[in-house]
Write a structure and sequence with these properties.
Elements lengths: L1 E2 L7 H10 L3 H5 L3 H21 L11 H4 L2 H11 L7 E2 L2 E2 L5 H39 L1 E2 L2 H11 L1 H27 L21 H8 L1 H37 L6 H13 L2 H11 L6 H8 L16 H28 L4 H9 L4 H29 L2 H7 L18 H11 L3 H26 L6
Antiparallel strand pairs: 1-4, 2-3
Helix pairs in contact: 1-6, 3-6, 5-6, 6-8, 8-19, 9-10, 10-14, 10-16, 11-14, 12-17, 14-16, 16-19, 18-19
């Protein structure tokens, strides 16, 4: 720390200088290197805007669309979504605005501006804080000392910041984009670039709640999604638990062989397995239907996944196939957990006269459940959004004429896929994705809190 002989200047004055010109307050405090760094950051923001805009051609006045740079035009595009659609002429599409591109560019511009705003506020507070310290003590760290101190105290955050920035643009940005789509009229009847997308507020959410066909489809698909997620999670968990307990038993021989056999369904990609099962249970030429017909067990072929008169058949079969695909995960997980249960618990229980069933429910199950409850909740969320098994196995069938773009085995996630990719109803798909997120997030949070799995964190 260095003693500086300067005039008493209010801390707010140094902050005001940095607010007007980046780094000016640091320069007043004689921290020239810090002042230069903050100035370069601020100048970089202005340089990006000037270099990407057309500020030298404003004969007709400043217009965001024609003259604005990356930041100003980005924000203008985000708020307006464009003002001039493209039209098809003799030589192709004319110049104009693409609403979705403008929205994406606007979100990126907003994120980068927020980062610059963070440095701008830091620049002002740093100048005021340093000036206050200098007025009180007459001593102040040099710029190099400040940078070294910052590196030592914020080392973890500095190292984590590149990954955080990457997460911001790779994960957060698409989520924000998807949420914003829910408040627009972006659909197959209003597709850029020949048409402009508009902000419609909560109209899409109102449509879901007030239009019977949409509400009927949503409630039906939501109910089946919950039934599917609960049954798929419970069956795979307890069947995996059962297999793990058997393999952990001292009377079972060749345990490595059995584990290797049972782990195969998990090792094979679920998509491949689902497509194989889909072929096996094909109603027209599948070997299962043919075998039952040849054996005289059925008088006609069974359309396992497409029979609209027996929708429960497709649902039950999907649950059984998911059980075959999912139980090895819990078998391996619980098998490892069982090795951590102390044998002394069982010895004490035997001395008290407990039988095998009592030891399982009073010792084994509570210990294993507490250790695996968070993963059980994650499995529920995964099954709630289990796109692969349902889509590649049944494609949402059998068809349901009462539903909007959904079948009897469609989950919310496969319905969203059909709404967006197959039918290009992007706004409604975004609305459903928000609702799904709220449901899954609320359910997961409540159950994790009740399981008390994170009490020690």
């Amino acid at each position: 720390m260095t003693a500086l002989h300067t005039k008493q200047t209010p801390a707010w004055a140094a902050g005001l200088l940095s607010a007007i010109v980046w780094g000016a307050g640091q320069t007043l405090n004689r921290q020239y290197l810090k002042g230069l760094l903050f100035f370069l950051i601020g100048a970089g923001a202005f340089a990006i805007e000037i270099a990407t805009g057309r500020y030298t051609d404003m004969a007709g006045g400043f217009r965001f669309r024609e003259n604005g740079g990356f930041f100003l035009k980005g924000l203008w595009g985000l708020f307006t979504l464009g003002t001039q659609p493209r039209t098809m002429g003799l030589t192709g599409l004319t110049a104009g605005d693409h609403s979705i591109v403008l929205m994406a560019n606007g979100i990126i511009a907003l994120f980068i501006l927020l980062l610059f705003l963070f440095f701008y506020i830091w620049n002002i507070r740093d100048a005021a804080k340093a000036r206050s310290q200098l007025n009180e003590t007459g001593m102040l760290h040099s710029s190099l000392q400040e940078i070294k101190k910052l590196w030592e105290s914020m080392y973890a955050y500095i190292i984590l910041s590149p990954a955080a920035l990457l997460t911001l643009f790779i994960c957060v940005l698409p989520i924000v984009f998807g949420v914003l789509i829910a408040f627009t009229d972006y659909s197959r009847s209003n597709l850029p670039p020949t048409k402009l997308v508009h902000w419609v507020g909560l109209n899409n959410f109102v449509t879901v709640t007030e239009v019977f066909s949409w509400m009927h489809t949503f409630l039906g698909v939501l109910l089946w999604t919950f039934v599917w997620a609960i049954l798929a999670t419970i069956t795979t968990y307890f069947f995996g638990f059962f297999q793990a307990v058997l393999l952990n038993s001292s009377i079972v021989r060749f345990k490595k062989l059995w584990r290797s056999i049972y782990i195969l369904p998990w090792a094979v990609p679920a998509m491949i397995s689902a497509l194989v099962f889909k072929s096996m249970f094909n109603g027209q030429f599948g070997p299962i239907s043919q075998f039952l017909l040849d054996m005289g067990l059925t008088s006609e072929r069974i359309y396992w996944f497409t029979d609209p008169s027996n929708t429960n058949l497709a649902r039950i079969l999907a649950l059984l196939i998911n059980l075959w695909l999912g139980f090895p995960y819990f078998m391996a997980l619980i098998g490892g957990t069982l090795t951590t249960v102390s044998e002394s618990y069982y010895e004490a229980a035997r001395m008290d006269g407990a039988n095998a069933g009592q030891m399982f429910w009073k010792i084994t199950f509570p210990i294993v459940y507490k250790a695996t409850a968070p993963l059980l909740m994650l499995s529920f969320v995964s099954n709630f959004n289990n796109f692969g098994v349902i889509y590649f196995l049944t494609e949402g069938g059998p068809a349901n004429p009462d539903y909007n773009f959904a079948g009897n085995t469609d989950l919310l996630i496969t319905w969203l896929y059909k709404l967006t990719l197959d039918n290009r109803l992007y706004n409604m798909g975004a609305v459903m994705s928000i609702i799904v997120f709220l449901i899954v997030a609320s359910f997961s949070l409540i159950n994790l809190r009740k399981s008390k799995s994170f009490e020690e964190l």
